[in-house]
Inverse folding.
C-alpha cells in the first residue's frame, strides 16, 4: 500500500466518530505508515501485537493496555479493552500482506464488529 492510499483510508475512517489512530504494519513488524503523524508505536509492542494476531492468542497488548480478542481470522482482527474503557482495535490484512490497524474510542455509534468490517473493506478497496 502506498502513502496516498493510506491517507485516503485514514480520511475515510475519520468520516466516522471515534477513530484515534490508524497504522500500517509490515509482516515483519515495521511501521510503514501511521496517523496522526505524532503518534508513535514501540517496536516491541508492535511485534507483540502481530504475534498475538498471527498466533490467535486470546488478547493483545496495545499502549500498555490489554485488549480481549473477540474476532481473529485469516484477514480480520477485532479486540476490545473491556476493563479500562480504552477503546477497541479493528484490523485487516491488506492485499499486499501488510496489517492495517485502527484504534477506536470506546464510545462510538458503530459496534466493534462493524468497525472490523469497515477496516477490512477499506484495506481491500
Amino acid at each position: 500500500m502506498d502513502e496516498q492510499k493510506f491517507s485516503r483510508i485514514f480520511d475515510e475512517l475519520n468520516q466516522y466518530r471515534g477513530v484515534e489512530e490508524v497504522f500500517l504494519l509490515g509482516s515483519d513488524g515495521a511501521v510503514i505508515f501511521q496517523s496522526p503523524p505524532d503518534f508513535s508505536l514501540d517496536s516491541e509492542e508492535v511485534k507483540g501485537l502481530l504475534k498475538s494476531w498471527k498466533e490467535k492468542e486470546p488478547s493483545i497488548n496495545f499502549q500498555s493496555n490489554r485488549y480481549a480478542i473477540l474476532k481473529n481470522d485469516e484477514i480480520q482482527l477485532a479486540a476490545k479493552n473491556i476493563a479500562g474503557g480504552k477503546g477497541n482495535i479493528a484490523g485487516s490484512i491488506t492485499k499486499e500482506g501488510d496489517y492495517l490497524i485502527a484504534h477506536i474510542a470506546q464510545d462510538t455509534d458503530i459496534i466493534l464488529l462493524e468497525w472490523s468490517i469497515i477496516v477490512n473493506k477499506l484495506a481491500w478497496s
Summary: The domain at 3-123 is CATH 3.30.450.30 (Beta-Lactamase). The longest strand covers residues 65-72.
